[in-house]
Automatic annotation (TrEMBL):
Keywords: Carbohydrate metabolism, Glycosidase, Hydrolase. Belongs to the glycosyl hydrolase 100 family. The keyword Hydrolase applies. It comes from the Eukaryota. Transmembrane segments: none annotated. The keyword Hydrolase applies. SUPFAM superfamilies: Six-hairpin glycosidases (SSF48208). This is Alkaline/neutral invertase. Invertase that cleaves sucrose into glucose and fructose. InterPro entries: 6-hairpin_glycosidase_sf, 6hp_glycosidase-like_sf, Glyco_hydro_100. GO terms for biological process: sucrose catabolic process. The lineage of its organism: Eukaryota, Viridiplantae, Streptophyta, Embryophyta, Tracheophyta. It comes from Populus deltoides. It catalyses: Hydrolysis of terminal non-reducing beta-D-fructofuranoside residues in beta-D-fructofuranosides.
């Protein structure tokens, strides 16, 4: 029986026994009662440093955001049945398609499956992925539908508490699942959740990003509903501390960035992102800032607040100085001396100037810049990665000047990064010998396909949010218009192939949920920019430090 067919079968919510094998278990009735806990009306919290105001560089239309009451606010796209912009045929189609992907556990919505494409084998696309659910969750929050997001947060939190084993190795207590699946047992008339913590993933890599997205979504839920009771639950506070403990533990690292394996994030296959990938560092930074808002100042929470604040200062300095690349910095690296010793070294990572790829000199505009893909000893990955740079803007990891420079780069390199379908997950593609060495001859990640320079419509929501925050909504509007010309007609593909994104991906699933949800979130944010507040953080002036200015930062 398929997971979808199993959703509406009679369920017994009072079962308390657990299955010992694997990650399969039943959620006890005591925990289920938490999800039914009545919400207080707009519990008011003391605003933390990031919520006080939007920066001078931010889009002026959202200056009033902190004065709005978010609870109960609904977008003009609230349902396909009401009047307004949602009567656009593509918006109606998107909402209908999104609702068909809802997954129910004991009659409660708990998430959305990755794709609803019946033309191919399901594999793991019938599961609820943490990272995939984020745009769906935002769409439901912006539409005033909070229940599914609350349930998702609670169910994944409970999954975190299970023992996690890969072969004979036990994972850290704070690891969040990559995905989960609803299983029905007709012989016992019950439903269980089966979680994947990486033991079934390609390469057996645990998802580093899941915990970060969970904290970010918890903050988005709190911001959207005005209800802090969920975040203040002891279970949620403990879940956050477990995630943070994994990331803040001391070791042999000399950098504040997180050391990761290949395949630990959205790029979940071998693509040379091992080390200190920008996607993980940006999500890490944003999750730390969200945790600083959500953690209670009790005995346990206070210690973590201090550790988080210290790490944020070090991380922002490191990223803004060593990951940032613009014309001036590129020229400096080009002229680097090597084998420097002592604390006075300029080339601190001993990067060889001859390792600079030819393409980066043509790609870098006179005005513009971006956070490069990776920085580690004697290695810089100069590739552009969309998700990391957009999250850097939303989290204010990027200074206002750097955020502006990133948008300058996107405008200057529109054909390369947007082309015929937004948006390149990374640029450029690995080819020939480099592709063979870095990907291990991966047949799915051939040049300009999938993670290797493919175009992913889901990234549209991140681009739109970054555009609104930097005061350039016209860029997002232009990208959305391009997507609208094909996305629904092509049945919402997972990704597109080709240097310009002209072709539906050779292995792309149709009716990919986050392609649908990403479009809806982008449309709703353009219609009502105040929605940006749930996914955007203002610059913390306490973390501002002297950063070398460059030509691309000047107006």
């Amino acid at each position: 029986m398929s997971p979808i067919a199993a959703m509406d079968v009679c369920q017994n919510g009072s079962v308390k026994n657990f299955e010992a094998a694997g990650s399969m278990f039943e959620i006890d009735s005591e925990f289920l009662r938490l999800s039914d806990k009545p919400r207080p009306i707009n519990v008011e919290r003391k605003r933390s440093f990031d919520e006080r105001s939007f920066s001078e560089n931010s889009f002026r239309i959202i200056d009033h955001l902190e004065n709005l009451s978010p609870a109960g606010r609904r977008s003009g796209f609230n349902t396909p049945r009401s009047c307004g912009f949602e009567s656009h045929p593509m918006v109606v189609d998107a909402w209908e398609s999104l609702r068909r992907t809802l997954v129910y556990f004991r009659s409660q919505p708990v998430g959305t499956i990755a794709a609803l494409d019946h033309s191919v084998e399901e594999l793991n696309y019938d599961q609820v992925f943490v990272r995939d659910f984020i745009p769906s969750a935002l769409a439901f929050l912006m539409n005033g539908e909070h229940e599914v997001v609350r349930n998702f947060l609670l169910k994944t939190l409970h999954l975190q508490s299970r023992e996690k084993m890969v072969d004979r190795f036990k994972l850290g207590a704070g690891v969040m699942p990559a995905s989960f699946k609803v299983l029905h047992h007709p012989d016992r008339n019950i439903e269980t959740l089966m979680a994947d913590f990486g033991e079934s993933a390609i390469g057996r890599v645990a998802p580093v990003d899941s915990g970060f997205w969970w904290i970010i979504l918890l903050r988005a839920y709190t911001k959207s509903t005005g209800d802090s009771s969920l975040a203040e639950m002891p279970e949620c506070q403990r879940g956050m501390r477990l995630i943070l403990n994994l990331c803040l533990s001391e070791g042999f690292d000399t950098f504040p960035t997180l050391l990761c394996a290949d395949g630990c994030c959205m790029i979940d296959r071998r693509m040379g992102v091992y080390g200190y990938p920008i996607e993980i560092q940006a999500l890490f930074f944003m999750a730390l800032r969200c945790a600083l808002i959500l953690l209670k100042q009790d005995d346990e929470g206070k210690e973590f607040v201090e550790r988080v604040a210290a790490r944020l200062h070090a991380l922002s300095y490191h990223m803004r100085n060593y990951f940032w690349l613009d014309m001036k910095q590129l020229n400096d690296i080009y002229r680097y001396k090597t084998e420097e010793y002592s604390h006075t070294a300029v080339n601190k990572f001993n990067v060889m100037p001859d390792s600079l790829p030819d393409w980066v000199f043509d790609f870098m505009p006179t005005r513009g810049g971006y956070f490069i893909g990776n920085v580690s000893p004697a290695r810089m990955d100069f590739r552009w990665f969309c998700l990391g740079n957009c999250v850097a803007i939303l989290s204010s990891l990027a200074t206002p000047e750097q955020a502006s420079a990133i948008m300058d780069l996107i405008e200057s390199r529109w054909e390369e990064l947007v082309g015929e379908m937004p948006l390149k997950i990374c640029y450029p593609a690995l080819e020939s010998h480099e592709w063979r060495i870095v990907t291990g001859c991966d047949p799915k990640n051939t040049r300009w396909s999938y993670h290797n320079g493919g175009s992913w419509p889901v990234l549209l929501w991140l681009l739109t949010a970054a555009c609104i925050k930097t005061g350039r909504p016209q860029i997002a509007r232009r990208a959305i218009e391009i997507a609208e010309s094909r996305l629904s007609k092509d049945h919402w593909p997972e990704y597109y192939d080709g240097k310009l994104g002209l072709y539906v991906g050779k292995q792309a699933r149709k009716f990919q949920t986050w392609s649908i949800a990403g479009y809806l979130v982008a449309k709703m944010m353009l219609e009502d920019p105040s929605h940006l507040g749930m996914i955007s953080l203002e610059e913390d002036k306490q973390m501002t430090h002297l950063v070398k200015r460059s030509a691309s930062w000047t107006c």
